Amino acid sequence: MQETKINVRLAGTADIMFDRFIDHSTEPRPAEQKFYLAEGNQVVLPGNNVLQFLFAEEKPYGCARRFEGKEGSKYAQTGQAFCFINNSMINFLDDKGPVIFRGFEGSKQFRIHLEAAVTKMSNGKVIKQEARPRPVLMLPWSLKFEISLIKNDKIDPDKLFNWFAAGGMMIGLGTHRPQFGRFIIDEWE
């Protein structure tokens, strides 16, 4: 089994929004509970979210489904079997190091976005939902992580690079994308 390790650094080109799902409660949640936080209030992104960016087969579609047309499901299945994000939690970084959440008040790094989602019904009607507060990490931000790719017949490092390059602008990370969460590849080794 031949394995390739790729060190990746993604640099944000748009603010990134969070809406971490906790449970099915109808209770309103404060915006700070919608971040992914690690020890010391470090803002993180689960590695699984990067896998969803690549291989999600349901809306919003991942790169495989979005860019590979009719073969997208086969690419997604192959990727789910042969591609691993080696960091279960990926630290958000800024110019000084890990991003630490210290609150919204007076922050130049965080803000609360309040906007109502719009849902299109199958009958063509549009329903505007209640506005929910969502936390936003403003630029600059970056993510640094490692990918392990097991050799297979569909996905190679060049394919992954191209997906990250195109997907960074067309799909993005986080919620309310691609308006939020867009990025470019800053490092690929």
What would you note in describing this structure?
The structure is a single chain. This protein has 189 residues and is an alpha+beta fold. It has four helices and 13 strands. The strands form three sheets. Strands 1, 3, 4, 5, 6, 7, 12 and 13 form an eight-stranded antiparallel β-sheet that branches. The protein has a three-stranded antiparallel β-sheet with strand order 2-11-8, with no helix packed on it. A hairpin with a 3-residue loop joins strand 3 (37-38) and strand 4. The longest helix has 14 residues, at 157-170. The radius of gyration is 17 Å and the shape is globular. The protein starts with a strand and ends with a strand. The model has no long low-confidence stretch (mean pLDDT 93).
Helix coverage percent: 10-25%
Radius of gyration: 17 Å
Termini Cα gap? 20 Å
Form type: globular
**Low-pLDDT runs:** none
Oligomeric state: single chain
Describe the largest sheet. 8 strands, antiparallel
Extended strand count? 13
| Share of residues in strands | 25-35%
Structural class: alpha+beta
Please report the number of helical segments: 4
SSE string: EEEEHHHEEEEEEEEHE
Mean pLDDT: 93
Descriptors for this entry?
189 residues, alpha+beta, three-stranded antiparallel beta sheet, 4 helices, 13 strands, 21% helix, globular
In short:
With 189 residues, the protein is α+β, with helices and mostly antiparallel strands. It is 21% helix and 33% strand. The protein is globular.
